[in-house]
Amino acid sequence: MVRLLPAWPHWYQKPSYRDPKTFTQTTNAAIEDGHGSRAPSISSQSDAAIPQDLSLDRVLSNKTCSPLSLYDFYMYLKHIELSPENLEFYMWYRDYEARYQQKREGSRPEADTPLLKQPSNEKDNVYATWTGISSGKDSDLERNSQENEFLRYIEGLMPSAELSMWKRCRPFWSRPSESSETTLGNYSNSEELQQVAELFLVPGSPKELNLPSSMRARALAGLQQSDSPQTLAPIADHVYYLLKNCSHRNFIRLGVKNGTFETLCMVTVAGVLLVSVGLLTMLLLAFASPSIHHSNRWRGLAAAPFWWLGFSFLLAGWRGSCFLLLLFSRRQELPWERVDSMEKGGTPKRPNALMRFVKKMMLFERKIRVKDQGLRVLQRTIVVQSMVAALLVTVVLEAVFLCLPIWK
């Protein structure tokens, strides 16, 4: 059941930013040092900044809508963090695991299918002895064709922009059908795993995952013995951990930020001006209208609306959101949406820095309705909290000024 009222008493703060490169290096070092699968300092941190409705599992299941859909998450990884391979591998793994289980239930094999002869016991030779699963007789042209076909299949697991825009919260992505051009119906498990290893796991591969060397070595050695998805389960868990505790947090942080930097600057300046106007109104009423000790103290309440609205702007902007856009559940274009709009509109002459700054302000930018219900609830939470906190600050300021011995 959708919550109608936000749980606003808990002051919301958007997730703190985590540098993907530093976080991955720290996590990999912790694994290599024998601290388990993650850094203890990171594991103990709370996820209260990410509501359950916007959790990574819901995003991966495509149960969230724009601007926090699975397609948006993929575009974020592709254009912002430059690490789409993590999501591509994890989506493939879930798909392969489901297909493997279906085949296993149908054929009931007694044991995992061996892929190669028993590999060498020398740990240092794991990378050197990886020769793939094929016999090596295929030409380079055929290999490139297979790689392209496999890449198309992985891309087919990702929702398109049209689905993200027009379909509301689809329950899950649909695997390519057997009649589709992006199907792996002609691939055996061993051939598919060969493509995965050469694409994601082997050092220097096109989409090499940033993995601890020991985890990579065990996975490559295991692929030479079995085609079971359990061989790659540690890597999938590791990638999921990186997505959940770093990339997804940064993605939610970007989603909560509903305006550009220029818009936030404009709204912050507007908030400061409103607070200043409120203070000026209070001083003029007290000292110049008509003069000190001759003005009714209750006239000082005229400054309250300026303070209330100004502090609402500032408190929302402090958390990276534009108060006016929050009120109407609107947002500005995300970076990749801005690139798409520019490409569709041609390549006009690049304006100067001042014009680019002005055009990115809220008044001149295209406003888009927020479709995801979970994010809209979160935005209402920020609005209510900002207005209530601003009201409390206004009451305190009014009480202080009205109690001063400057009134009639």
Evaluate the radius of gyration. Answer: 28 Å
Shape: elongated
In this structure, how is the largest beta sheet organized?
Answer: 2 strands, antiparallel
Widest sheet, order of strands: 1-2
Number of strands: 2
In sequence order, what are the helices and strands, one letter per element?
Answer: HHHHHHHHHHHHHHEHHEH
Number of helices: 17
The chain-level mean pLDDT equals 79
Distance between the termini: 56 Å
- The helix/strand class is mainly alpha
Residue stretches low in confidence (pLDDT < 50, at least 5 long) are 116-124, 170-182
- Helical content (DSSP H or I, runs of 4+): 55-70%
Strand coverage percent: under 5%
Number of domains: 2
Report a brief summary of the structure.
The chain is mostly helical and 408 residues long.
3D structure, described in words:
The structure is a single chain. With 408 residues, the protein is mostly helical. The chain has two domains: 20-256, no CATH class; 261-402, no CATH class. The chain contains 17 helices and two strands. Strands 1-2 form a two-stranded antiparallel sheet. Helix 12 runs antiparallel to helix 13. The radius of gyration is 28 Å and the shape is elongated. The model is unreliable at 116-124 and 170-182 (pLDDT under 50). Keywords: Membrane, Transmembrane, Transmembrane helix. This is RGS domain-containing protein. Pfam families: RGS. The chain crosses the membrane at residues 263-286, 306-328, 382-407.
